[in-house]
Specification:
About 35% of the residues lie in helices and about 25% in strands. The protein contains 16 helices and 23 strands. The protein is globular and about 65 Å long. The N and C termini lie far apart (about 60 Å). The relative contact order is 0.12. Helix 11 (about 310-320) packs antiparallel against helix 13, helix 12 packs across helix 13 and helix 13 crosses helix 14. A seven-stranded mixed β-sheet has the order 17-18-16-15-21-22-23, sandwiched between helices. It has a six-stranded mixed β-sheet with strand order 3-2-1-5-14-13, with helices on both faces. With about 500 residues, it is α+β, with helices and mostly antiparallel strands. Bound molecules: adenosine-5'-diphosphate. The site of adenosine-5'-diphosphate has 17 residues, from helix 11 and helix 12.
Length: about 500
């Protein structure tokens, strides 16, 4: 039950920074603290984090928000955790010592391992059980890599002396003083070891990926009791009552509770997740099936599409090319033209994700003339984000989803030019909420549910408030011309890398 003077603490442990956000019992944001931490790039394609950097940043932001709650006369009654997904940690069950840096989701070191498994014909079985593709993105091959590359680890893992965890699991272990080795179903669903149909770690997959089952955490609903955070950690004890991967938490924060509702987060990359309710749809269009959330033992499935580069293309125009001094400037620059004048950019700076999955594709700009200027570059870059979103929506439609609108968040969702162009190209209403911290809000909602402060997910829908709704109004033939230009550009880019 909701208590007077109570607050919820939500953690959003992301790829480049950790945030703690304090929410009142009725879901208003009371404070936020954020710390960036170091990204380690040992070689091309490798990305690691120090486990201690992740933990210290969480400690600092958590302590600040616990102090903030105290200064407001509030007591934290529950905490929720949303986290970067797939990132892999292994530690000693007795001492808690982490045996290797966290291998981050972006890390490509296990490409060859994945290709071998694919060549051996395992893709269909993996897809059927996990909803995922065979790709280094997911945790399983990262675990095997650590066990095979750090001396003496494999026998220790076989003897049950080591724990594997995604970041949620690692944080709960730290917060509970090593008492709880648990995770939630959404995070488990990103490991390639978890069968999303029967809700169990899969012995055949563990065998295939060579991961001892003794390392795996207990899998729980996304709501419920995950353990008590000790008083000496943040200065106040409280139970951890909600956990989900960041994109899953954002789906909840965006109140995508009905079948066909879709959210799309525009940060560095873009992650679109559609609620498919109780249908575990297996995509025929290169999307991923995933567990959107699991509450009271009931799984709600989702279909996911990931674009590797969205905000990053604006970052590149700013830092790489020097065309912009701030990301926000791209809006006025793009809007200074009435048209793209036939200039298209395919921002495949690190390959193309869904639905093309072409790691070797590289970026291209088409249609340059003597009249092309900086504004065309800004416009083509922003338009490319909407065109890529269109490709994902079309893949979702082909898989049987009938979207009625798109809810957006992330840094790039602030760009009004892009949001209007998106509505026009998708021919869908695009809704931007007042509170764009949807990931943290989702973690807070899970914690409210898990601690009994609210009883159903649907009751929390009123926490989502509209800021701006962008309606499609582009002339149909103009839209078709634009889409034809994009499709030609994508085809040429894909042809070029094959
Ligand atoms: P992440 O969580 O991935 O670090 P954020 O949600 O903080 O990303 O969004 C930052 C990204 O969005 C950056 O890549 C930046 O270039 C882009 N961005 C931020 N504001 C704007 C804007 N007004 N217009 C276009 N792009 C923007």
């Amino acid at each position: 039950m909701r208590q007077e003077n109570s607050a919820i603490l939500a953690f959003d442990q992301g790829t480049t920074s950790s945030r703690a956000i304090l929410f009142s019992a009725d879901g208003s944001m009371l404070g936020v603290s954020q710390r960036e931490f170091e990204q380690i790039f040992p070689a091309d394609g490798l990305v690691e984090h120090r486990a201690s950097d992740i933990w210290q940043s969480v400690l600092q932001v958590g302590r600040e928000m616990v102090a903030k709650a105290a200064s407001l006369g509030l007591t934290i009654t529950a905490a929720g955790i949303a986290n970067q997904r797939e990132t892999t940690l292994i530690w000693d069950r007795k001492t808690g010592d982490v045996v290797y840096n966290a291998i981050v989701w972006q890390d490509r070191r296990t490409s060859t391992h994945c290709k071998t498994l694919s060549d051996e014909g395992h893709l269909q079985n993996v897809r059927q059980a996990t909803g995922l593709v065979l790709d280094p993105y997911f945790s399983a091959t990262k675990i095997a890599w650590i066990l095979d590359n750090v001396d003496g680890l494999r026998p220790r893992a076989e003897r049950g002396e080591l724990c594997f965890g995604t970041v949620d699991s690692f944080l709960i272990w730290q917060m509970t003083g090593g008492v709880r080795h648990v995770t939630d179903a959404t995070n488990a669903s990103r490991t390639s070891l978890y069968n999303i149909r029967n809700g169990m770690w899969d012995a055949d997959l563990c065998h295939l990926f060579d991961v001892p089952m003794a390392m795996l955490a207990e899998v729980q609903d996304s709501t419920g009791y995950f353990g008590d955070c000790r008083a000496d950690v943040f200065g106040q004890a409280f139970p951890i009552c909600g956990v989900a991967g960041d994109q899953h938490a954002a789906t909840i924060g965006q109140a995508c509770f009905t079948k066909g509702s879709i959210k799309s987060t525009y940060g560095t990359g873009c992650f679109m997740l559609a609620n498919t309710a109780q249908d575990c749809l297996l995509s025929e269009n290169n999307l991923l099936s995933t567990i959107a959330y699991q509450i009271n033992g009931q799984v709600t499935y989702g279909l996911e599409g990931s674009i590797f580069i969205s905000g990053a293309v604006i970052q590149w125009l700013r830092d790489g090319i020097g065309l912009l001094s701030t990301a926000a400037q791209s809006e006025a620059l793009a809007a200074s033209l009435c048209d793209n004048d036939g200039v298209y950019m395919v921002p495949a700076l690190t390959g193309l994700g869904a639905p093309h999955w072409s790691p070797s594709a590289r970026g291209a700009i088409y249609g340059l003339t003597r009249d092309t200027g900086p504004a065309h570059f800004a416009r083509a870059a922003l338009e490319s984000v909407a065109f890529q979103t269109y490709d994902l929506i079309e893949a979702m439609r082909a898989d049987g989803i009938a979207p009625s609108g798109l809810k957006v968040d992330g840094g790039m969702a602030d760009n009004n030019f892009l949001m209007q162009f998106m509505a026009d190209i998708l021919e869908l209403q695009v809704d931007r909420p007042a509170l764009t911290e949807t990931t943290a809000l989702g973690a807070a909602i899970l914690a409210m549910l898990g601690s009994g402060q609210t009883t159903t997910l649907e009751q929390t829908a009123s926490l989502w408030k509209l800021e701006t709704s962008f309606q499609p109004h582009l002339d149909r033939s103009k839209r078709e011309t634009l889409l034809a230009g994009w499709q030609t550009a994508i085809k040429r880019t894909l042809l070029d890398c094959c």
